[in-house]
Amino acid sequence: QVQLVESGGGLVQAGDSLRLSCAASGRTFSTCASGWFRQAPGKEREFVATISWSGGVTHYADSVKGRFTISRDNAKSAVYLQMNSLKPEDTAVYYCAAAPRHLASDVNSDYDYWGQGTQVTVSS
After folding, report:
1. How confident is the model at residue 103 (pLDDT cuts 50, 70, 90)?
2. Rounded to the nearest 5°, which phi and psi values hold at 74?
């Protein structure tokens, strides 16, 4: 079992940066792939970024590639999402997730554990 708690969301202006953190608890976290997803009002939850358990493999949605960076620190049981050059269309609730049975994944259903989400609002 893995518990996930996100933090770091907030209200920023277009062009600003934010760093989201995801604190994990549970013995198996260091062996799980981790991912960030987001859900905007009236839209389905969508993939943002994923990282393998070792940090050696990362993958990003085209919409954030070059602006967002996912990283992890297994010693601290944490995953991060550095978001630069934020745009109004990045406004959403951001969710951290863990997938114990996959190397890295951009598929919602591959993730067994989810956090409660943190709101990111980007004003123009």
Report:
1. confident
2. -65, -30
